[in-house]
Amino acid sequence: QQMRQSSLRRLIGRPTFGLELELHRLDCAASHAKFDNYHFLLDTMVALENEPPVPEPLLRGQDIMAFGIAPGPRVGQLLKQVEEWHLNGEVKTREEALARLHEILVDV
Fold first, then answer.
1. Separation CA 78–CA 65 (nearest Å)
2. Is 81 exposed, middle or buried (0-12, 13-18, 19+ CB in 10 A)?
3. Which of 13, 21, 29, 38 supports an S-S bond with 54, CB 3.0-4.6 Å?
4. Distance between alpha carbon 105 and the CA centroid of its chain, in Å?
């Protein structure tokens, strides 16, 4: 329950999540009978059912390279950072993502 929102959304978006959740429920029933994490995950899954767990990316590699970043691992790292911001609700639009990216690149 202490997971970052981005990690939680990735977990719920996994193709095997339903099976993993059921295995967790069975494990809880057989061992300690505490279902708080199970219910938390169910509630979160219901809350996210009308939106994709991992939404379409706000930016692409060419957007990063437009800042003068050469093709390579740094582009992937920055795309991953933008995805984290998006999944955590820190940026919601392409424009917000570009502005935030500009802020961190100017400070470098």
1. 10
2. middle
3. 13
4. 22
Quote the tokens at residue 53. Answer: 């767990």
Distances (CA, A) of 80 to 17, 43, 71, 86: 22, 27, 15, 10
Residue 65 has which token pair? Answer: 């390279």
Q: And the tokens for 89? A: 């609700």
Q: Which two tokens stand for residue 41?
A: 């995950």
* 22, 43, 45, 50, 70 from 36: Cα distances, Å: 14, 10, 14, 23, 47
pLDDT, tens digit, 9 for 90 and up, residues 29-54 = 999 999 999 999 999 888 887 776 67
Token pair 């990063």 is found at 64
Condensed to tens digits (0 to 9), the pLDDT of residues 58-68 reads: 999 999 999 99
